[in-house]
Amino acid sequence: xxxxxxxxxxxxxxxxxxxxxxxxxxxxxxxxxxxxxxxxxxxxxxxxxxxxxxxxxxxxxxxxxxxxxxxxxxxxxxxxxxxxxxxxxxxxxxxxxxxxxxxxxxxxxxxxxxxxxxxxxxxxxxxxxxxxxxxxxxxxxxxxxxxxxxxxxxxxxxxxxxxxxxxxxxxxxxxxxxxxxxxxxxxxxxxxxxxxxxxxxxxxxxxxxxxxxxxxxxxxxxxxxxxxxxxxxxxxxxxxxxxxxxxxxxxxxxxxxxxxxxxxxxxxxxxxxxxxxxxxxxxxxxxxxxxxxxxxxxxxxxxxxxxxxxxxxxxxxxxxxxxxxxxxxxxxxxxxxxxxxxxxxxxxxxxxxxxxxxxxxxxxxxxxxxxxxxxxxxxxxxxxxxxxxxxxxxxxxxxxxxxxxxxxxxxxxxxxxxxxxxxxxxxxxxxxxxxxxxxxxxxxxxxxxxxxxxxxxxxxxxxxxxxxxxxxxxxxxxxxxxxxxxxxxxxxxxxxxxxxxxxxxxxxxxxxxxxxxxxxxxxxxxxxxxxxxxxxxxxxxxxxxxxxxxxxxxxxxxxxxxxxxxxxxxxxxxxxxxxxxxxxxxxxxxxxxxxxxxxxxxxxxxxxxx
Length: 610
Description:
Blueprint: H1 3-21, H2 26-36, H3 45-48, H4 55-72, H5 75-87, H6 91-105, H7 111-129, H8 134-146, H9 156-167, H10 179-196, H11 216-222, E1 229-234, H12 245-248, H13 250-254, E2 256-265, E3 268-273, E4 285-290, H14 297-304, E5 306-308, E6 323-329, H15 341-348, E7 353-359, E8 362-363, E9 379-385, H16 386-393, E10 400-403, H17 418-434, H18 439-452, H19 458-464, H20 467-485, H21 488-500, H22 505-520, H23 525-543, H24 547-559, H25 568-577, H26 581-606
Antiparallel strand pairs: 1-4, 1-5, 2-3, 2-4, 6-9, 6-10, 7-8, 7-9
């Protein structure tokens, strides 16, 4: 062992220790190594920073943009809401659907992003069904981890390993090379978690208790709004078709106010904000807030020839993507002080409705608000489309925004662009899978089209790129070259082969998988792949075997981080599910053994060793 190799190994050990203790954060560690490795004389600074021009780094960045566009257009959230409806109250069925959705979506977008989108979906499902969220969150996280085994672009380690293959002079994997391995692994993981979810019980060390952010249902109950909800469909020949909403003056005539209008054009639904200039059409569905004590549904139906539709008794909570609530306070010197609620609504916005009033702690009764005189310090509950609510949130001196519902952060500003986003994703995947364009070219084209079609704004695209992750990858990549030049890779490969002697190649594959999983207990999966793929390829060369099985087994092992919360995905669900470290070991260890055995079998079967 030469002095240069010892120096490189000392730096590598220091990096692993800092990764394990997360001090400093991983991207800073990678930058430190990027600066220190050229000082050893093994590589120069040009070679150290060469990763910034690596096509795989560009590919990863472009896929971050594509994934963010899918999130902003609500593709993932709609899938989540759909499966929540299909799963009903059956815990096993909901677990199955959640894991399938997360696993398949994670094959095409950032698995971390998928988990971030699905956490609120899962929490809503848990609240609705009364099932402990711990029964869903860890299965969801494991499905996200396994999604990295489904396609080439599903996770960064796959791309790093693919790059090392091509750097070694052989053809890389194609887009769906991973799929025959990933689908059985996902299936086995789902089946296992359908049983293992019963072992999950939340620990007593979750997130610190604090004042929870209110949800719209909290306000619906607090202000007793459920009885104020009406939904009607405008029939042909209705007197409502004879003028604008301003001319009809429904608040004065019958004590109801239109919150929103649903209009269908073929199979496409349009949501229209209420304005005095709006003309109604036959077939329109009106979401009505009934404030007046004298308002009577039968009179409304008879006088205006409308069809009464079933009420949800949740005050349009099922329309939360379109209709929102917000609490505001009347400050001193506000022009609204001294006005009646009806006068304030006219001055406030043509699209917003005051549906609740609180003076001190006690809410006003749900009816008869319009004639109530407003005082400084009163709290108003506003209802209406999210767009004017967002505009009000941006500031002003007339009203102070007190509370936003937790649904506010889940509303998708680009939801109407979902069809375009799906078509762009299909185009991107098709170009990659068929080889019509190089992967990086197809990903860049997909990211560009997402911006060109308005699925994501340019500034949002830049923010979507996880620069810390890219810096960490670039900073760790020079280690592979440094270890190769100092014969460290060759020594490690020879040591592994000598240790196993003339063992069956499947035993060597199992050893590489185990080494990758054990290393993944302490360092993140991308750095893990960077460090182990040179050893795996060197072992293949030493045995005179094909490099593909050895590269694939490292790729699969890098995604199987079930036993530790060090993975960002596991960290995200650990607090939400109140999991202890023992939960990860108790559930993750058997699953790691099962998936490891399956992986070795599949790799040896599907990829020829010689």
